[in-house]
Amino acid sequence: MPEDVCCCSALGRAVALLFMVLLAAATLLGNALTLAVLLGTRRYRTPHGYLKASLAVADLTVGALVVPLSVHAELALALGGPAPAWTARANVSGSGGGALHPCALVGPVFAGCTLVSISTIFLLTLERAVAVLRPLHRDAVVTRRRTGALIALSWLGSFFLAVSPLLFGRDVALEYNPCSRMCTYAPRAAASALLLFPAFDFTLLGAAVLVNLVSLGSLRRHSRRRRRLAGNECALAGARRLPSGADIRAARSIGALTLAFTASFSPVAVLVVGNARGNEWCGFSFFAFWGLAANSCWNVVIYSAGERRFRQRALRLLTGCRNKSSTHT
To answer: So what's the pLDDT on residue 4?
Structure first.
């Protein structure tokens, strides 16, 4: 392993392990609760709710598969035992004794779920833009069937893109990186196939930012119009064409989510470009990848927890579960 303080010191390992455990717990709890609210409440069974559920599934998968594997490897080292055999770079992308290498599963899952999150954010941005710019046509344009088809296409396309460096890049392998403490794509030479990830992600994120700017500009005009119409009963009929307060709050939340994901993905994009050129930045690698993984935890806060009705429903679920457990006890 590289001689890096962040990577190899006892204190650094302990802090990193604590962070991983807390992140896994928060990600699993937050996104499981989000899915329970979205799928168990009739008012959320809408195209917007389905897109949120898709994003929560991607985040939940990261918390259930990607983070626990890193916790397992770091816990073995923290207890003073030997590192798992699959963490050695000599075993990259291979199988020992006929067993599947864990990184062969976890690496594409993390990449695929990240791509799903970005494509879902883009779809959420488009859905909110229609609600803000064409509120009267939203139900005709954004339907459940079309949304379901777009979600399926998002998952299929994202995971195909996630495995494409392995299918079309001869100098790319999967390994457990001791710096990032994750299963990542490792270029054996200047692997241009890895540049597909930042190119795809920044294309969608850039488009989402532009659409959000248009939507937020329209919201400002609508807010001014609402203030002008306040107290004018004769103009209330015209106000029906304006977006509702819920649509406005949702559009602002999606805008904040887009900016947050862009900020967290940018360091990973820089790292991927550097790795494709043969560079390896150990300390930066850890903060870049785990900053991206942390999105799976606080996405819930941005796009759901800020809604009062969502919080009330989530509190009812938690209270109900607590009451049932106390009754059985």
So the answer is: 46
Give pLDDT tens digits for 42-77: 888 899 899 999 999 999 999 999 999 999 888 887
Closest CA to 113 of 301, 300, 296, 272: 296
Q: Show Cβ contacts of residue 30 under 8 Å, excluding neighbours closer than 6 positions.
A: 59, 297, 300, 301
Q: Let me know if 149 is exposed, middle or buried by CB neighbors in 10 A (0-12, 13-18, 19+).
A: exposed
Joined tokens for residue 49:
């709710």
Distance CA 273, CA 190 (A): 10
Cα separation, 35 vs 45, in Å, equals 11
Distance of alpha carbon 51 from alpha carbon 55, whole angstroms: 6
Listed as own residue / partner, the contacts of 92-96 with beta carbons closer than 8 Å and 24 or more positions apart are 92/173, 92/174, 92/175, 92/176, 92/186, 93/173, 93/174, 93/175
Position with higher pLDDT, 178 vs 66: 66
Distance, in Å, from the CA atom of 238 to the CA atom of 218, rounded to the nearest integer, reads 16
Strand (E) or helix (H) holding 185 = strand 182-187
**pTM (2 decimals)?**
0.84
Scanning the chain, the segments in alpha helix (DSSP H) are: 5-8, 10-40, 47-61, 67-78, 102-133, 138-141, 144-168, 196-229, 236-239, 245-276, 282-293, 295-300, 308-328
Q: Are 147 and 50 in contact (CB under 8 A)?
A: yes
Cα distances (angstroms) measured from residue 258 to each of 52, 211, 249, 319 = 13, 11, 14, 32
User: Both tokens of residue 68?
Assistant: 């626990």
